[in-house]
Amino acid sequence: MENYLVVNILAENTNENIRKFSKLAKSSQCNVIDCHFKVMGQYLSAIFLFSGSWNAIAKMENILTKLENECNIIIQKKRAEIEKLQADYMPYVIDIVGPGHENIMYDITDFIINSNLLIKKISTSTYEASQTGIKMFALHMIVHIPSNSSIATIRGEFTEFCDQFNLDTIMEPLK
Q: Which of 23, 33, 49, 50 is the least crowded, having the fewest Cβ atoms under 10 Å away?
């Protein structure tokens, strides 16, 4: 039986830390199921989902505890169960780009949740438009839509919602 471990790491952004984190699976004989590295200021954020035997996961937990104690690194770890996509949901991707507004992230997630969609992933960023200097907002989201829902209705309502904030959006099946 496969066991799973979710690990969230916050450390100084150095190549040596990236090497340490990349080597975790090899050191513990776990498999990397999912991994995200992101530099934020002078910090490196890394999120992993590992799988392995009970012994491999226990070894990973010990390695992480040692790493946290020896280095200036913040590590959160939690054993997890992996859910399979249920047949009564369809995975969709939502991409949004437009001017940045206060609370826009909340407004979008609130709309999605009120529409009974399940949020599975969110990535956002802001940047300055090269031609105008306007603060822009970009969002990438994966949602699961109930199969008994009308995609056309959800897409239409979501497009109307985004138009209120002058946001361009694309909603399409996950490929």
A: 23
